[in-house]
Amino acid sequence: MIRTTRRAALAGAACLVAAPAGAQTPLADITDVAQQVALDDRVARGYRRDVLIRWGDRVAYDAPPWNPNVPGEAAAAAQFGWDAVTVAAVRPPAAADGVQRLVLVVAHPETNPAMMFPSLRPMPAVEADAMGASIINLVAQGGRWVIADGGFQARRITATTLCRIGGPLVGDARLRTAQDQGGAFVRGIIAPTGGAATPWGTVLLGEGDAAPVLAAWRDLSPRMAEANEANRFGWVVDVDPLEPTFVPVKRTALGRFPKAALASAVAADGRRGLYMSEARTDGFLYRFVSTRPVDATDRAANEGLLDEGTLWVARVGAARLDWVSLTSGPEALLALRAAAVRAGATAFDSPAGIAVHPDGRVFLACRGNPSRGPGRTDLLNPRAVNTWGHIAEIIPANRDHAAAHADGALLILGGDPAQPGSSARYASGTRSWLAAPEALAVDQRGRLWIGTAQGNGPPGLQRATGIADGIFICGTDPGSQRGVVHALYAAPRAARIGGLALSPDGLSLIAAVRTPGNEPGADFTRPATRWPDFQPAIPPRSTVIALSRQAGGPFGG
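Given the sequence above, the corresponding structure tokens read:
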């Protein structure tokens, strides 16, 4: 891990840079990385992989040294979590010294006692502090992004962090706790699966399914036994990464359901749009459009922008996608899936990552659904048996993210083209293939970056395919290179790619390589790999990496 000891004193409003889409540069000069499963990771020729932070590394200034053989609550609450998903890289205002800085937000969605602890047994109090999120300072040094040790914003958010309730359900009896009968505050962020940055510099974390976590932690504290506890999770949580004293806000206007991924957009009239995918094999695709437009001149004026607006759910027909508005009463917000079912929503094949192209197109990764069944296919879910996953393309009418309709197409159909009956589809010039696409990001040239997660797909998928999860680049230009896929990075054995974030300078791709060595039958004492340290006494560690071109210049060529 690379660190700098200089303290980054960062403050003020955030600024995310979105470069206009230009002509996509050729992909043919990329030498695809070998895809076979291996103990170590690999990166394509001409690219460099730097380690930023790993499970157990210090986040908070007072974190003790990591000792995996002696887990403890205080240590877990100050160190980087066991699981990791890159959420967003926010650029703060320029400092007087001219040094480039970033604030990185990483979610910690899961815990696994068998892989985390020498005893292989649950330790709910430690797990609660290992879950949540890490906020980390990065600084550009010698052409690389490195950790700014002791950074001003560096901190942990856990399953016990105080959060506010925002939006229509403030004070609702079904969210009240025994400690706060006013219903304005709750404790903790549980199972955050990903998120997105807002234009004004906050970061949204989408909570996943808290039910199995709450069941496992039922004896952790009296509040876990409260009837309302489940209602306090499954929300989008708004976090200000630049302000250490900010209390995270659960935005109830966005609805309660297990989130897979989020992506921000701006409607033609300046209103805020947010796309949200549901973490289910038959999950839905939702959209929120704010009532008010974004205020580009006053950051504080946007604080409650996500508390008022309209929720929509996607319904896919034979030739287009329609957005159906949902009722926004308390009952619907607390159980949004039920409202979506009543509205005739279309089930997608394990919808996951979402990315918005600069020209207004929206890409949705679907990991797959092996049991969709004949007669239930549609324009954006074309396989009755979808073992491999695919990427759908949604083109809003007039490229307006508040439009009621959208055209739909398929960018790629995952799988091995050489396997009979796979129905895999890529464009000519593709030299690598993929399965279970999960994380998406669009770069400054409009190319799509794809992170795969076979461990999140059908059981045993990686063993069946024989290929490692990794990071791929895919052309999206309708004129040329559309659907051409190349493999840039191969993760170590049993690792998945969790989240992708392009640095605002366009020079690096930041990604989480999550839970290496965690495959069926593996545990703390017998992992499938010991990446990235490869020391006999050190377990494998989820790791955030930065990929860059060795010769410098824009990432991806």
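The chain has seven helices and 30 strands. Try to locate this feature in the token string yourself.
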